[in-house]
Write a structure and sequence with these properties.
The protein has 238 residues and is mainly alpha-helical. The protein contains 12 helices and no strands. The mean pLDDT is 91.
């Protein structure tokens, strides 16, 4: 266990060093960084899982912390490059998901969890077409909600979609459909769930507490940012 922990710590340090280099060299001196890492990831699941961690770190460095460590001009250039090349990252995510769907036992659980986690951090900034003009939402609800091992990561992805604001006006019908799908899934919880909840083992109860908190954020995100779309849909239905 100590050896495994040491290896994970070493790998984390290597990833952080790589991101430091990428921030200095990409895209002007290392233009093919995104294609390179995406292409290499298809050969090995452990490598792919670590690539997702690296891409997640890059997203955080640029979109979450960039303004604290880089000039505005540099951040703008990196954001533009990530957007331009995101199609290759999205194709890698789809490659992983579709392999799981076609052969459910063929993809490591940890790889799927990391891919969903990384995707959740991408959803706040990627071009909206990748979200609303693909089968991403349907795939999340159909394939990653029901299995408990992916549900929290799935809900986090949907929460990011629910909280999108800029440019979503043309996709209101998609947001309503997404909301309806979420409500349907919540209604499938056992009717006596809240009676069972206090009697669950502590570890199970902690997991459900995290999930319920994410569900609350998801529903409030929909209602806070997309209330007008919900009301328009209700009027049409009536």
């Amino acid at each position: 266990a100590d050896s495994a922990q040491a290896q994970r710590h070493f790998l984390t340090k290597l990833n952080e060093t790589l991101i430091f280099i990428v921030k200095q060299e990409w895209p002007h001196s290392w233009e093919t960084f995104i294609p390179d890492i995406c292409a290499a990831s298809r050969s090995n699941q452990s490598l792919c899982e670590n690539s997702m961690r690296i891409l997640n770190l890059l997203s955080e460095e640029v979109f979450d912390f960039g303004k604290n460590s880089m000039t505005a001009k540099k951040v703008f250039k990196l954001k533009a490059s990530l957007n331009e090349q995101f199609s290759q990252i999205f194709e890698l995510c789809q490659f992983i998901f579709r392999n799981h769907i076609s052969q459910p036992s063929s993809v490591k659980t940890s790889l799927l969890q990391q891919t969903l986690t990384t995707l959740s951090h991408f959803l706040m900034w990627i071009p909206l077409g990748f979200i609303f003009e693909t089968d991403l939402i349907q795939m999340l609800l159909a394939c990653f909600w029901d299995p408990l091992e992916y549900r929290i990561e799935c809900v986090k992805c949907l929460n990011e979609i629910a909280c999108l604001q800029e440019g979503v006006g043309q996709y209101q019908s998609h947001l309503v459909t997404c909301f309806s799908g979420v409500v349907k899934k919540i209604n499938e919880l056992p009717k006596d769930f809240f009676q069972q909840f206090p009697r669950m083992p502590a570890q199970n109860r902690m997991w459900w507490e995290v999930l319920l908190n994410q569900l609350a954020l998801l529903l409030s995100g929909f209602l806070k940012h997309n209330m007008s779309a919900m009301e328009t849909h209700r009027e049409v239905m009536n």
